[in-house]
Each structure stands twice: as structure tokens, then as C-alpha cells.
Amino acid sequence: MLEGAELYFNADHGYLEGLVRGCKAGLLTQQDYINLVQCETLEDLKIHLQTTDYGNFLANQTNPLTVSIIDTEMRKKLCREFEYFRNHSLEPLSTFFTYMTCSYMIDNVILLMNGALQKKSVKEILVKCHPLGRFTEMEAVNIAETPSDLFNAILVETPLAPFFQDCMSENTLDELNIEILRNKLYKSYIEAFYKFCKNHGDVTAEIMCPILEFEADRRAFIITLNSFGTELSKEDRETLYPTCGKLYPEGLRLLAQAEDFEQMKRVADHYGVYKPLFEAVGDGSGGKALEDVFYEREVQMNVLAFNRQFHYGVFYAYTKLKEQEMRNVVWIAECISQRHRTKINSYIPIL
Amino acid sequence: MGSMFRSEEVVLVQLFLPTAAAYACVSQLGELGLVEFRDLNASVSAFQRRFVVDVRRCEELEKTFAFLQAEVRRAGLTLPLPEAGLPAPLPRDLLRIQEETDRLAQELRDVRGNQQALRAQLHQLQLHSAVLGQGHGPPLAASRTDGPLESSPLLQSPGGPHQDLRVNFVAGAVEPHKAAALERLLWRACRGFLIASFREMEPLEDPVTGEPATWMTFLISYWGEQIGQKIRKITDCFHCHVFPFVEQEEARRTALQQLQQQSQELQEVLGETERFLSQVLGRVQRLLPPWQVQIRKMKAVYLALNQCSVSTTHKCLIAEAWCATRDLPTLQQALQGSSSEAGVSAVVHRIPCRDMPPTLIRTNRFTASFQGIVDAYGVGRYQEVNPAPYTIITFPFLFAVMFGDVGHGLLMFLFALAMVLAENRPAVKTAQNEIWRTFFGGRYLLLLMGLFSVYTGFIYNECFSCATAVFPSGWSVAAMANQSGWSDAFLAQQPLLSLDPNVAGVFLGPYPFGIDPVWSLAVNHLSFLNSFKMKMSVILGVTHMTFGVVLGVFNHMHFGQWHRLLLETLPELVFLLGLFGYLVFLVAYKWLRVTAASAASAPSILIHFINMFLFSSSPTNRPLFSGQEVVQPTLVVLALAMVPVLLLGTPLFLHREHRRCHSRRRQQPDEDTAGLLDPPDASLASQGSDEEKAGCPGDQEEAEFVLSEVFMHQAIHTIEFCLGCISNTASYLRLWALSLAHAQLSQVLWAMVMRAGLSLGGEMGVAAVVLVPVFAAFAVMTVAILLVMEGLSAFLHALRLHWVEFQNKFYSGTGYKLSPFTFAVEDE
């Protein structure tokens, strides 16, 4: 790709970039959060959200409000914005958008497969699927019995197909295998996305690569954490780590050998970026959960992405920030509806 | 009209509204639109206010209204405009409206739901019959006859264990955009153990949107039960409608007939439902518009009430509002009228206030556009001199100086006149086109601009760039020819002849009005006009600016800042008039005193003016008048001496005042302590000091007095004014430049298009034919380039001259508008 995005970027993507920056300005501010936290009921929450960019998004709800309605409506709103961006995008930005949806598609496929395994009806699970990762063949996922079945029959036409290269096996789909499948898919997805951004070069690479590196490393940490005490062997574990992060290769090797949280922490200590994150994690009573620490770091990186112009990272960053905001609102709404106000302040502010 | 000169007196009033009558009072105020409520609960968030429940109820109702409205729209009906003058409903009426709305909405929802269900059912039936019907079509019939033929030997020959293995069918309909994906997925998932045929059917009405949509019907034949399950799952996930499909053709035909009968019955029921639906919609159409207006008013009233605070006894609401002094009696009357029912009357009383009151300038449809020009720069400070009344004349005039042409001005005037005459027609009033509304809003402005352009056009003697000879010219060529004895040979040799005004009888006297038409024939037409227009621009500019400085006097007098009169306005006037006023004097003097006879040795104003600043004189340039050597240096010295006065005068004066006040207060703290401890006295004291603004400035102001800051401001002001005098005078030269450009452009258009066209055809017929397109081109270009484009450019420059050159001499424009609480919808 040519260097010097500023020369030609605006011709194709200027409108969308302007739009996404405008949308970003509509994210809830600290003051909004302070007001939301003071709400007594979900109705109050709704009234307050009406004064923000969410506007009348709940106006057509005739039934009493629940947290899940708020969540669904917020997702719909994000989805509408995203679809608008996507429909107005040109190559290579549209490919970038496709990559962005892939992660949601993977989640949806896995969700459906798990559902099929537990003999739940498709409709019930469809509600839980993320709207950004919807595709037509999705619901047919449960007819597949092996990963190669899944690939050959259903996913071959979707953007997910290339990520299946490493996961073709004739194993039956039980819970563990599905989880492994998800991680393998995610690994190849994130590596492909990373490669795409790297090849694109210019500011996009400069912004997106650190974000994706962090995402890859986060997955590595989370996989490690979740595999403690399961039957997953260390060798298998290592094959699940995405290899595009900062931890690759030594860190991942060390991580594969880790047996408990302390050892994991020791691995992280070798890296200037992750050391402070693990130090912020508290033990049970005080401090934050590792997940939250990671979220905070992600928010920080995504906000910084807006400091540069002429790159695609803003779209990614905006979607992620919006998701974080939705998680925050849902958290606050949950706390309000369950009358559990002590923890209401542990949302992750977007600064 | 008196209120045009400065904004009206506005006071802060406190309204004590008895709780029982508060609603009626505020709704009455909304009808009148007199007061602007101040938010007394700014620190309270929106959902913790007093009337939030009522607001929410109104919102709920509006939601239902939106639903009803959407239903009416969907049925292709429009809502009539509600009649004017509906009052806000009484709070107890809200319940009735709510009940009726809910009932109506429920009814509509039921009927609508019924209709939807029926339609969906009908749709299903139609799809089913289409699926069954596809068996009769020729292409599939052929393939189906093939099917059994091929399969029957296959089935029969093995016999025994495979007895139950036979061809099964799945038939249904799918949306066309999914058909391809479905087919591929079926093929891949079932590894080809099936035959699927897809076929497009004629468009059916979609049950939800009511728009025609095509569907694809499909017929899948397969072998084996496992595959059948798979197929069912896949068709499920594509949201296909799957119908039972019997193999026997005979049975199918009877089924088809049954279906058709059913759908006919259903259609009848549907028709009945739709009739009922239209009845309900008719009711909605009648009831909804007045309700909408009423509820909107009610919500506005509650939102206003939310800004009031509650008295300690909970017996009344206290509102603070800005109100024009002139409207106070009306306000009192209105409040008494609407609170009389409650037994306790609402009370209005003025309270002192430190905040700057909002600016209220009442306009009518004539002055509105001129006030708009001023407000676009900045809404005036409270009680500041309002430039709008002067703008009414100066703006069109300065525009016309740049746009001077009788023809163009007349066209503009007629266009504006047409708008003015048609302004009461509803079609014109309600036009939505944004560009049209802009022009329509400024119709009186355009009218005056056109009128003044006609006037300056006569001065320049230009009508579509051609001179008109209304009066006989003051120049006589015959006299010149006779006197100097031009022979034929001389005339043939010389392409140019010059008229000498010194020869007796050649120049008879000035033209009665404007420029002599003979100049349009002269070669030095342009240089003559340039000299005239340049001098005219400077004279107009200096006059305009001086007027601006003089207007500042009224500001200072009104605000009681007498020191500024002496320390600012006077030096400014001396500086401006001493330098540029003198220039104007030179120009006028030379015009009046230098005659044609002494033209050869006429002094140059430019050299004189330059020498004036250099304190020198050039020997070749004759003095204009005696004593000039004394007057000029004196003026320069005087003007320069004014700069330090302007720079230091006000800050030093304020500093001294401040010190004096300070020391005086230090002398009498003993007397004050008692007063300060006693609350009522203190409030009285503060009230008193407020009343006499002219006296010692308020305590707060005094406390904030910082000498360096005042100096800074004054220094900026001084530099801006002194440099501004020079640059602004130069800026007025745009009058010359623009009018020159306009004249030249219209001349080019005339010479290149119209005159060329006129000289084209020698014969009568040819000329007549050619002139039609030529004139069309001329007319279009005149309107597009000269009227619209040039007009906009002249407008822009006139705007700039007013905003920058004129208004910065006296107008601060830092106020905010009074925006009263009113139900009236903004017209413009």
C-alpha cells in the first residue's frame, strides 16, 4: 500500500471518518455516568438516556422496561450505525468491516453449537446472538456433527471459511471440542486480521497492530487462566495462543508452562506493558478483576486511536468503545434493577 | 418605533403562583408569550423535579399519538390541521384524553392485529396454492414425469429390504434473495441426494408492508428419512414456508380447490375488517390533531412549572421570569384573571437583579429583516444603542452604491414588490423551499435595495450600462467644432477629438442630475468615473464611521459613563475628523474651488495629504488655500496627541475612582457594620445601589477591578481604533471597486451580446429571428450574473461594511435575546 494516507484517504473514506468521529462525540460522558448512577428506577435511566445521543431509542417500548430490552435496543442502535458505515464503505474499508464482524460471527456460531448440544431450541438462542455477527446460514449450524461437516456444508461461503484451515478434524463436537474450535477459529481470525492491517500499512497499521497485539495477548492470558484445572494439555494449550501479539514467541512458551496465576503473573512481569496491569489486579476482596483491568486498557487504547487521522482504526475503536459503553449501561441498569447499589460504581469509564 | 433605538426595559419579576392556580396561570402566560422563565432548579436533574410525573404522562400520551399518527399515515390518509386557539387542557381533562386515546389505540391495535393475522393467513393460503399449482406447470411436469419413470424401476427391482425407500417431497416457498443460498446449502449438506426445483411466482402482497413481493416456490424430492430431517431443519432456518405436498395429482387438485375456496372466504372477512379499520382511522383523524396540540401545550406548561421553586409553606410556587416593563400590567391582569378561580390570586413583584437582562426589541415585518442583519452579528447588550434603525437606510444605500444601475435596480424592486404584494397569500407564506424563504424573509430589504439602486443608477446615469439623456447634455460639440474650425480633412485624420471646456459655449453647465450622458461616449469615461467614485467612497466612508462614533455618545450617556464621553469619544472624533475629515474637506474644497480654467495648475490632493504626514511641502504643488501650512501640522499634532489620551485616559480615571471609593469605604466601616448585620437593611442598600447605576459602581464590580486588565483592554481598543481608521477608510474603497466591476460587467454583457446581436442582421427578417435567442441569452445572463451573483456580492460587502466598519465603533453585541415562553409556533 502507498504511504501518505492523508493524500487520498478522504476521497474514499473521509465522509465515514467524519461520521464516526461525530458518533464518538456522542458517547456518554463522565457527567452522564454520574447522573445514571443516581437513577432510582429503570424509567429514570430511560429519561436520562433520552437527553443523550441515545435519544428516543426506547420510545416504542410499550412493555415495562427490563435490562434485556435496554440491552437489545442499544445493540440494535449500534448495529444500525455499523450497517450504515458498512453500506457506505469502499474497499479496502469494507474488507476491514468484514473482519470486524467475523469475531461476532465466531461467537454466534459457537453459541448456536453449544445450544444445539444442550438441545435448546434455535429461536431461544437466536435472541442471544449478537446482531453484528448475523448471517443467513447461521441457524443451520446445528445440523453439523463434525467441524469438517460444519465447514463443508455451512461456513464455506461465509467470511469465516479461511479461518477453518487449522480446525478441520473429524472429532465429534462436544463441549470441550467446541471451546477448542472457538479458540482456534479466533486465533486464525486474529492473525488474519493482523496480517490484513499490517499489509495495509500506513497509519492504519500503526494504530490497529498494537490494538490487535493486545487483543491476542489478552486471549493468551485468558486461555491460560481458564485452562487451569481442565483436561486441556499444555501442548494443546499452546496451539490455541494467537501468535501475533507481543508475547510471541518466548512469552507464549512460558505461558504454556504456567500452572497457576502466580506463574502467569511472573510471565507478565517480563513485559513492561502487562506488568502494571497484573499489579492492578487484586486478590478477591479488594482490587479489580483481571478482565476489568484488560477492559480498561482496551478503552485507553481505543480512545487514543482517535488522536490520529486517516486510518480505519477509528471504526474499530468506536465499535469497541460503544460496546464498552453498553456493558457499562447494562451493568448500571442491572445494579439498579436488582437494588444492588454497592457495586454500581465499578463500571469502566470512557475518558 | 420608539423601541427600535434601544432595547426595551426588561425587569426580573417574581411570580407567586398559588399551587391550585399555577397551572392555569402558566398556561395563560404561554398563550400570551410575555415572559421568559429562569430555571431555578438548574442543580436538580431532569427526573428529580416536581412535575416529572406529569411530564412523563404527557410523553406517554405523545407516544400513543405517534402510534396513531403512524397508523393514519400508513393508511395513506393525512391529518387535518387543527383549528387555532385551542387552550391547554385542564389537568383533569388529561385523564379523559388519556382514556379515550388508550381506548382508540387499543381498538386500532386490535383491528390492525386482526387485519394482519387475516392477511398473513391469506398470504399463507396463496403461497400454498401457488406451491401446489406449480405441479401443473409444464417444466416441472416434464421433470416429474421423468422422476417416477426413472425411479420406479429402481425401486421395484431390489424389492425386499428397500421396500420403504421411496421418493418423498418437501414443498414450500422462500424469499427470492435466499433461494440461491438455500439451494447451495441443501446441495452441500445432503451431498446431492435430492432434486430441488425453484420457480418464481407472481408477486403477492406482503402482509406486513403491503407492498408486492415475489416469492420463490420450491419442490424438493429426496430419498431417505435422515436427509428429510436435514432438509426440514435447513428450510426452517431459512424461514421457508413449508406445506404438505401430496403425491397424487388428483388429491392435489382437490386440495387446491379447497384452498381457493378458503381464500375467497377469507378475502370477504378481510374486506369487512378493513372497512371497520377505516372507520376507526376516520375517528382518529378527527380527534387526534386537537389532542396533539393540547398535549404539547400541557407538556410545555409542566416543563415551565418544573423550573419554579416551591415556597417553604408548599402553598405556592415561586417563579422568576424576565418581563418587559411595558408588559407588566398585562402580566398582572392575566395572572389575576386565571388565578381568580382558585380564590387566592397570583402575585407579581419586581426584584432587583445583578445579571444583565435579556435584550428585547420588538420588530414588525418591515423592520424584522434589518434587525436580523444586526442580530446575525451579535444580539445587542441590554439597552445598548441599536444600529438597526439606521441600517434601514444605510444598508440599502451602500448596497446601491455598489449596484447602481437603473435597469437592474428596477428588476429587483419589481421582484421585491411582487413578494410584498403577495405576502398574505397562504401559498407563498407556507412555501417550504429554503432559498425561497430566505428571499421572502428579506423582501422589504430587497425592496429598498432595489429602490436605492434605481436612485444611484440615475446618479451614475446607467440603465443596463447605457446612458440615458433625460436632460440635454451640458456639452456642445457644435460649439467646439465652430470655435476651433475643424475641417473635413482634420476630422478624417483624427480618430479622437477633445472638447475643451475653456472654449466658450462648449461647456454650458453641469448636468441637472447625475453624470452627463456625454461621458459614455468619451474615451476617458472610465478615468473620470474612477476619480468620482473613489472620492465619493471616501466621503461616504468617513461620514458613516463618524456617525458610528457619534452613536457611541448615546451609549455613554445612557449608561452614565460620562468620563468616556470626554476620554474616549472626543479623542476618537478628533482623530478621525482631524485626519480623514480633513481629507474629505480637501476633496470638497477642490471640487468647489478649482475650475476648468485653472485645471492645468490644479494642486494634487494626494501629494498634499502625504506631505501633511511628513510635515513637508513640495514646491511644485500649489497650496489649496492660504494658511494650509499652519492648519495641516496642527491637525496632525492634535490627532497624534489624542492617542495617549485615548490610551491612558479611561484606565487612569477608573483607577482614581476605584481608589476614592475604596478609601471612602475604609473611612466609614463603623456605620456600615450595623447595616450589614441587619439583613433587611442590607438588601435595601443593595437595591439602592442597583438603582443608581450612575453612581459608585457595584461592590462586586469594584472588587474585580484590576488595573492591568483595564489597561490591556484600552490598549487593544486604542490600537484597533487608530489603525482601524486608516484600514477602514481604505475598506470603504470597496464601494468604488464593486460599482466599477458592476458597471464594467454590464457593459461587457451589453457590448458582447446585445450590441453584437443588434448589428448582426442587415435585413429586417434576419434581425428579428436572430434577436430572439440573443435577447434570451442577454436576459438570462443579466439575471444570473448581474442580478443574482453581483447582487449577492454587493450584499456581502455591504454587510461587511456594516458589521466591521460601522458597528465596531459603538456596538458590542454581547447580549442575549429574550425568548419568551410561548405556545405560538414560529412563523419565520
From TrEMBL, chain A:
Alphabetical UniProt keywords: Hydrogen ion transport, Ion transport, Transport
Transport as UniProt keyword: yes
Coiled-coil intervals: none
An MF annotation (GO) of this entry: proton-transporting ATPase activity, rotational mechanism
Pfam families reported for this sequence: vATP-synt_AC39
SUPFAM superfamilies linked to this entry: V-type ATP synthase subunit C
Keyword Ion transport among record annotations: yes
Cellular component terms per the entry's GO annotation: endosome; proton-transporting V-type ATPase, V0 domain
Signal peptide boundaries: none
Quaternary organization: V-ATPase is a heteromultimeric enzyme made up of two complexes: the ATP-hydrolytic V1 complex and the proton translocation V0 complex. The V1 complex consists of three catalytic AB heterodimers that form a heterohexamer, three peripheral stalks each consisting of EG heterodimers, one central rotor including subunits D and F, and the regulatory subunits C and H. The proton translocation complex V0 consists of the proton transport subunit a, a ring of proteolipid subunits c9c'', rotary subunit d, subunits e and f, and the accessory subunits ATP6AP1/Ac45 and ATP6AP2/PRR.
Function noted in UniProt: Subunit of the V0 complex of vacuolar(H+)-ATPase (V-ATPase), a multisubunit enzyme composed of a peripheral complex (V1) that hydrolyzes ATP and a membrane integral complex (V0) that translocates protons. V-ATPase is responsible for acidifying and maintaining the pH of intracellular compartments and in some cell types, is targeted to the plasma membrane, where it is responsible for acidifying the extracellular environment. May play a role in coupling of proton transport and ATP hydrolysis. Regulator of osteoclast fusion and bone formation.
Family of this protein: Belongs to the V-ATPase V0D/AC39 subunit family.
PANTHER family, per database record: VACUOLAR ATP SYNTHASE SUBUNIT AC39
Entry protein name: V-type proton ATPase subunit
Native species: Eschrichtius robustus (California gray whale)
Automatic annotation (TrEMBL), chain B:
Record-level GO cellular component terms: plasma membrane; vacuolar proton-transporting V-type ATPase, V0 domain
Residues covered by region (Disordered): 136-158, 663-698
Classification via Pfam families: V_ATPase_I
Compartments, record wording: Membrane
Transmembrane segments: 397-422, 443-460, 503-526, 538-557, 569-589, 596-615, 635-654, 735-753, 765-789
Signal peptide extent: 1-24
Keyword Membrane: yes
Coiled coil residues, start to end: 245-276
GO biological process, one term: vacuolar acidification
Main localization, broad class: membrane
Topological relation to the membrane, as annotated: Multi-pass membrane protein
Heme as UniProt keyword: no
GO molecular function, one term: ATPase binding
Entry keyword set: Coiled coil, Hydrogen ion transport, Ion transport, Membrane, Signal, Transmembrane, Transmembrane helix, Transport
Family under the similarity heading: Belongs to the V-ATPase 116 kDa subunit family.
Function as written in the Swiss-Prot or TrEMBL entry: Essential component of the vacuolar proton pump (V-ATPase), a multimeric enzyme that catalyzes the translocation of protons across the membranes. Required for assembly and activity of the V-ATPase.
Protein name from the UniProt record: V-type proton ATPase subunit a
The species this protein was found in: Eschrichtius robustus
Source taxonomy: Eukaryota, Metazoa, Chordata, Craniata, Vertebrata
